[in-house]
Fold this sequence. Notes:
The chain is built from 2 helices and no strands. By secondary structure, it is mostly helical. The relative contact order is 0.13.
Amino acid sequence: MAKLICWQCQRDLSDEPRPISRQAVCQGCFEPIRCCYMCRAFDISHRSKCQEDRADPPLEKTNANFCDFFRPGQPAQREPQGVGQSDASVALAALFEDELTVSAVDEDEGKAEGLTEANQKLKALFGDD
Length: 129
């Protein structure tokens, strides 16, 4: 029997009785265990996210489901939560053709300085209305 870990809190689920029921939840975070994220057929890089052709995958991959093709496996790897913010900051900097100049030492000053620079560029772009 393969070792199972929760897709949300990474808790060991080896004590969970098999077969896994639709009502089964992790005792650490109370998220459903029988969901797409916990299935071997779930592929985060695949367009439909399910490698099983005959499956009709639900829209919410974290909800418990009645999929007949569910096979418990290792949870899908998700992106760390801070990744999206840094990508947005880089995209914003590229929009104004600047580099990020905020340093960790003077972060508060950098935020104020970056704000005034952005305001100046907006005023130059749209005027002082």
